[in-house]
Design brief:
This protein is α+β, with helices and mostly antiparallel strands and 278 residues long. The chain is built from ten helices and nine strands. The protein has a seven-stranded mixed sheet. It has a two-stranded antiparallel sheet with strand order 6-7. Helix 2 crosses helix 5. The longest helix is centred in the last third of the chain and has 15 residues. The radius of gyration is 19 Å and the shape is globular. About 4% of the residues have low confidence.
């Protein structure tokens, strides 16, 4: 059996269906297949009416992110200022994603791909509903009601994990917005305005993914008690896979965060940091 056919069979057995809208988080190191092959298998299963969405985040486009701090560590104040002036503005058509994996880049660069316009937490997609789901991503809303995550929730999307766990589940961030009373902080990044580079600042909720692994384990523990569990488990190559509907996971996360975090987010200042962003 060819690698492509094996991938297609494994993903089909997991439950990926024609016409699905999938939000995919993937690490392909253990699957043993190049990203183009995995993407082709997924698109073949989804068919002409399906849509494949991936995070295409750009953590380096910030002057407070861990990426920025690592790159400027040891610089003088003058050197940091010069580095900041040289940082390129986010361009949805050209700026690569950062640390999102090779599958995300294969989607972003693929024929007919769409990308949302947020300069730090954009998504890329291919398929029938790609442009619709990614349109009008508000610059001042990372992952809330004016982001593609809210549209994916309403569209009945499902989440596919390939070789990763709930620690990177971007859908859980939508729950942070829905808990209420979330602390806010200021973000800044470089954007293009009429072809010119500008720095903008805005306030949004303080994203925090430090406990998403625990949250995901709690979701699966409750789900296992259902007569018909939401989460489906499988293996692809040497890596674990999961498939589950986005909306029930977000609904559970809203309840769990309200019960397990003061005001829905961590109060430990060392932990109020989504690893992908700041």
């Amino acid at each position: 059996m060819t690698v492509h056919r094996s991938l297609r069979a494994g993903l089909g057995a997991l439950g990926v269906r024609t016409g699905d809208t999938l939000l995919v988080h993937a690490s392909l190191r253990r699957i043993g297949a190049p990203p183009d092959t995995v993407l082709a298998a997924l698109l073949e299963l989804l068919g002409p009416h399906g849509t494949l969405v991936v995070p295409a985040f750009t953590a380096g486009n910030s002057d407070t992110s861990r990426t920025y701090l690592a790159r400027t560590r040891g610089m003088t104040e003058r050197q940091r200022a010069a580095y900041r002036r040289r940082m390129p503005a986010f361009d949805p058509e050209r700026t690569p994603s950062e640390d999102m994996g090779v599958l995300a880049e294969a989607v972003r660069c693929g024929p007919g791909a769409a990308r949302s316009a947020h300069p730090q937490t954009s998504f890329a997609a291919v398929g029938r509903r790609a442009a619709e789901l990614l349109a009008d991503h508000d610059e001042e809303c990372h992952l809330g009601e004016r982001s593609p995550l809210a549209r994916l929730y309403d569209a009945g999307a499902r989440v596919l994990f390939l070789g990763v766990g709930y620690e990177v589940c971007s859908a859980f961030h939508l729950a942070e917005y829905r808990v209420g009373d979330a602390p806010r902080r200021e973000y800044s990044c470089a954007v293009l305005r009429d072809g010119e580079r500008h720095w903008i600042s805005y306030k949004d909720i303080e994203l925090d993914d430090h406990d998403f692994g625990t949250l995901g384990a709690a979701f699966e523990a409750e789900d296992a008690e259902r007569a018909d569990p939401f989460v489906r488990h499988g293996w692809l190559g040497g890596t674990r896979t999961r498939l589950f509907p986005l909306a029930p996971a977000v609904d559970f996360a809203v309840r769990w965060l309200a019960e397990n975090r003061p005001h829905g987010v961590s109060v430990d200042p060392s932990q109020t940091a989504a690893r992908f962003l700041h």
